[in-house]
Amino acid sequence: MKLLLVDDHPLFGVGFAHALTHARPDFEVQTALSLAEGVARASQCAPDIVLIDYRLGGEDGLEGLRLFGARHPLVSRLMISGDEEPALAARARAAGAAGFIGKSRSVAHIAAALDEVAAGGEAFDVLASRTGPQVASLTPRQLEVLLLVAQGRQNKQIAAELAIAERTVKLHITALLDTMDARNRTHLLVQARRAGLWLAEE
Fold first, then answer.
1. Do the bridges between strand 49-53 and strand 76-81 make them parallel or antiparallel, or are there none, so unpaired?
2. Looking at the structure, do residues 118 and 188 belong to the same domain, yes or no?
3. Domain named HTH luxR-type: which ranges (predicted)?
4. Which residue, among 100, 93, 68, has the nearest Cα to 146 in the 3D structure?
5. Residue 107 sits in the same domain as residue 183
6. Among residues of the chain, what percentage have pLDDT more than 70?
7. For residue 176, what are the CA distances in angstroms to 116, 128, 172, 189?
């Protein structure tokens, strides 16, 4: 399996690659120190999976997920981070990640997550273990809408930001209210937090 790690800490990149390839000789790991370098490297090495660090110096790893999705749509994307909060994992999933891996995880755990994603699945154990089943069952698009609701966006603004019809936004919010057993938008956010998803508000 070909892997590309985008992380601005060279020492972590070297250690990650060494530990992973030592445990799994079938893994081939290349590294990049920035999103631009990562995108260029992906064009050369055609990785099966790209792992993008959340904190990339002055760059945003979440935007990196979207960038790779636009430039290399056939490459699976995972976010890797020392911040292992469910809200960040949810944001990564909404940005197109197929998985979220905490840097504190063991090599065996990381390898298992990579195998799961390579097989076409998802690897969001942070969501599954630290939030209620309702949150874990939300689709990436529903999570995007939920995060924007938490930021105070109205339906028309959400539609414009996600480039979808306002009617579609209403359908997503109706589904969210039903899934989270919420009466209205305010109660929806209360229910999401009760389920373990600590949403950042602007």
1. parallel
2. no
3. 131-196
4. 93
5. no
6. 95
7. 27, 17, 6, 10
- Alpha helices (runs of H) in 131-165, residue ranges in sequence order: 133-137, 140-150, 155-162
Is 200 part of any domain?
no
* pLDDT < 70 regions, the chain: 128-132, 198-202
Which residues are paired to 52 by β-bridges? 6, 79
* Dihedral (Cα; 78, 79, 85, 91), 10-degree rounding: -80
User: Over the chain, what is the mean pLDDT?
Assistant: 89
Statement to judge: residues 15 and 92 lie in one domain: yes
Model confidence pLDDT, tens digit, residues 80-138: 998 888 888 888 988 999 999 998 888 998 999 999 999 999 898 777 666 667 777 88
Domain region containing 164: 133-194
How high is the pLDDT of residue 85?
83
User: Helix, strand, or coil here: 97?
Assistant: coil
Q: Do 145 and 102 belong to one domain? A: no
**How many structural domains are present in the chain?**
2
Q: Verify that 143 and 125 share a domain, yes or no.
A: no
Cα-based distances in Å from 189 to 28, 62, 64, 151: 42, 22, 27, 10
